From TrEMBL:
InterPro entries the record matches: ChyE-like, Class_I_gatase-like, GATASE
Ranges that cross the membrane: none
Keywords tagged on the record: Ligase
Protein name (Swiss-Prot/TrEMBL): GMP synthase (Glutamine-hydrolyzing)
Length: 255
């Protein structure tokens, strides 16, 4: 069975819901906890794709998270090989920076909770997102982020924007995608993030209980939407792993 390399930055940012959905899509996961100094990222030989998860560091906080340069290099290698690659939140930001873009604090402040997804016209014909758009033309997603991509790599295509106009999803290279949203998150995952932000949110007067209840209430809609993304990504990985296909050449041509 084809294998995805999964880069996990910290314990409270796991693949969560995405893990079972990817396995349903016909791929295995090799999860590497890069915050462990003993873990060394492998080369991508033999992998069918890459999933880079979220985390609390900034995309260029190399002194805080010394493994980030290796992750950015991994994204560049994946792009050069034509391997399907998906970055979630921090993973999205790392991919954007790795390929020539920029990330900064969101001038509109932290985005948290269940947020509408604003598809662009390009999403309907995207090799990965077209099926998601067809299944859910007006979806919602979980957000929990301070930083956003402020400049895209050359040739990147915006696939969705938040109500505030921030990049919410993008094709960063022919076989590399990033989502600022959290398609993998459910209430237990978000509750851990809420706990770490409890003091900040209390000072802002933000009702965390209401945020968590909204995530729970939206669970069915969230799962129905983002399972399609996970299984579509697994399908691209299976195609990339087929013998003699040039490691994703057909995907590059499609985009």
């Amino acid at each position: 069975m084809p294998t995805l390399l999964v880069v996990q930055h910290q314990a409270d940012c796991p693949a969560a819901l995405f893990g079972p959905w990817l396995r349903e899509g016909g791929v295995e996961l090799d999860v590497r906890r890069v915050d462990d100094p003993a873990v060394v990222l492998p080369t991508l030989e033999g992998y069918a794709g890459v999933l880079v998860l979220g985390g609390s560091p900034g995309a260029t906080d190399d002194e805080v998270a010394p493994w980030l340069p290796a992750v950015r290099a991994l994204v560049r290698e994946a792009a050069e090989r034509g391997l399907p690659t998906l970055g979630i939140c921090l993973g999205h930001q790392l991919a954007a920076v790795a390929l020539g873009g920029a990330v900064d604090r969101n001038v509109n402040g932290q985005t948290v909770g269940v947020t509408p997804v604003g598809w662009t016209d390009a999403a309907a014909s995207d090799p990965l997102f077209a099926a998601v758009v067809a299944a859910r033309p007006e979806p919602v997603a979980v957000h929990w982020n301070n930083d956003v991509v402020t400049a895209l790599p050359a040739g990147a295509v915006v696939l969705a924007r938040t109500p505030g106009g921030e990049v919410q999803a993008a094709r960063l290279a022919p076989t590399v995608w990033g989502v600022q949203l959290h398609p993998e998150a459910d209430r237990p995952v978000v509750a851990a993030w809420a706990a770490s932000d409890a003091e900040v949110h209390a000072a802002r007067g933000l009702d965390q209980a209401a945020l968590l209840d909204a995530v729970e209430e939206a669970h069915a809609a969230l799962a129905a939407t983002w399972r399609v993304l996970a299984q579509g990504f697994a399908g691209l990985a299976r195609s990339a792993a087929l013998p003699g296909d040039g490691r994703g050449a057909s995907l590059s041509e499609a985009s």
